[in-house]
Each structure stands twice: as structure tokens, then as C-alpha cells.
Amino acid sequence: MKKTAVYSALFIVLSFLYVILFTSFLVADYKTYIYSVILSAATVFIIYKFVYLRSIYNLVYGLYLDRHLIFSLAKNDFKTKYAGSYFGIIWAFIQPIMTILVFWFVFQVGLKSEPVKNVPFVLWLTSGLIPWFFFSDAWNNATNCFIEYGYLVKKVAFKVSMLPMIKVISSFFVHIIFVMFMAIIFVLFDFFPGWIFIQLAYYSFAMFVLVTALSFITSSIIIFFKDLSQIISIILQFGMWLTPIMWSIDIMPEEYIWIFKMNPMYYIVTGYRDTMINKAWFFLNIKQTFYFWLVTVILFLIGAVIFKKTRPHFADVL
Length: 318
Description:
This protein is mostly helical. It has helices spanning 2-26, 30-50, 53-65, 67-81, 91-110, 121-143, 145-148, 150-153, 162-188, 200-221, 228-242, 257-261, 264-278, 286-310, 314-317. It starts with a helix and ends with a helix.
């Protein structure tokens, strides 16, 4: 009991300090800052009051303990996904590569798109599309994981909390190869960024956490609301165009740019381009970094609570 109280107190203090620090970067006016602090305090109280810290801790810690089994099952899922097809895992790369080629042909050859900031359009496009491919594929697959592995969900002894993570890791294997593919393209165009290339590990991790958080929310809901799959498909279709992947954010009026920055994937796509093209470290974009992790943590908290609430009813519905 005392240990839980300590965790709760620590959560309140750290969350409050975190939100104050975040808001201090966003506002310059003193009165606005005071209002932001009050709102932050209310937000932290609500999160503390309604989020079951114990269940969140158990979920994350349980995934950590089962990390070796999760990784093993993810490899098996990756292999079996394309088992029986003649070309096997090659299909995992054909469609994304063809998508890149189609967009490159339409925008650069057909519409005569100019280089973006003196960078060949194909490099600018590739560095934005590749993180989106992982996000889209991982979220789609992880959302349906409980339905796909219904026979495991009905087993009392199996930890179903591993399934969303298994699907995300399975998609991440493909992403790693695409990052290498992107590096080769940049080398061929003599635009390789150098040592800052390792920063992609940070942005990949950030995207991994984001899509895992979203997956726990949607995979827990879709069992009871099958239409969610179609809704997510629409969100991903619009999301690819609303995220500055095919177009530059610089063409938007200054007063509207903040709307697009609210999309967490804006931070990831911009981060990939900052790494590969602008050679800028993530800590130089401190405001967007704090915002991204604030949103991601809140989504993970929501996902953990929804999973805990709905988990006892999975077997009945499936």
C-alpha cells in the first residue's frame, strides 16, 4: 500500500513539473502562463483520479518481463504472414516501393515538382513516406491482433497484452530494412547525413511507442465495435495527406501551421527529414519534443485503462 502511495505521489509531482515545463515553452505572457499552470494542475488531478496507476505499471512491467517471448513471437508472426506465397516476404517491400515510385513519377515527372530546399524531391519524399509506412502498417495490424489471434485470447493462461506489441515489432522488422533502403538512396545521391543518421533510432523508438499506445486503444475497442477498422482506414488515408509528407509545411499560412503540428506524426516525419536532410538534432526542437511525449504518454495511459476495463470481456465477444 505504501509503495503504491509513493508511486502515486511521484506521478503527481513529475506530471505537474513536466506540464509546467512544457507550457513555459509555449507561452510568453505571464497571465496566460498562470492559466496554463492551473489548467495543467487540473489535468494532472483528473489523470491521477481516473487512471489506475497499478494497472498501467503492471501492463508496462509485464511487457518488459515477457520481452524475449514477445520478440520470438514477433519473428514468427513476421515469417508466417507471408508463408505460402511464392515470393514470401518480398511482398512486404514491393507495395511500399511501388507507392514511392508512383508518387515520385506523379509529382516530379508529371507535375514537375521542384527540389525542396535544394534537395532532390525523391529524397525529400522518401524520408517522409518511410516512417508513415511503418506507422500505417503497424497500427492497422495491431488493431486487429485480438481478432486475428482469437484462439489465444480465449486461453486463460496466455497474456494477451503481448499481442499488440508483437504486431508492432513484426512491422518494425520491415521498417528497419526500409531505413537501410533510404540510406542507400541518399548515398547514391551523395546526400548521406553522416553520424547524425543514428538519430533515426530515437525517432523510430518514439514512433514505436506512439503506435503501441494507439494500438492498445483501438485493439481493445474493435472487438466490440467492428466498424472501427473502416474508421481507422479513413483516418490513415486523410492522415497521409494532412501530415506534410507529399507537400511542404512552408506553403501554409503561418497562423495555420500550429494545427498541423498537433498531429504527433508531424513530429516524426519532420524528425526523419531533420536527420536525413537538415542534419538537426531532436533536442533543438524542444517544444515539439515535449508536446509529442506529452500526447504519447496520455495516449498510453488511456490505452492501458481501456485494455484493463475491456480485457475480461474479450473471450465472451470473440
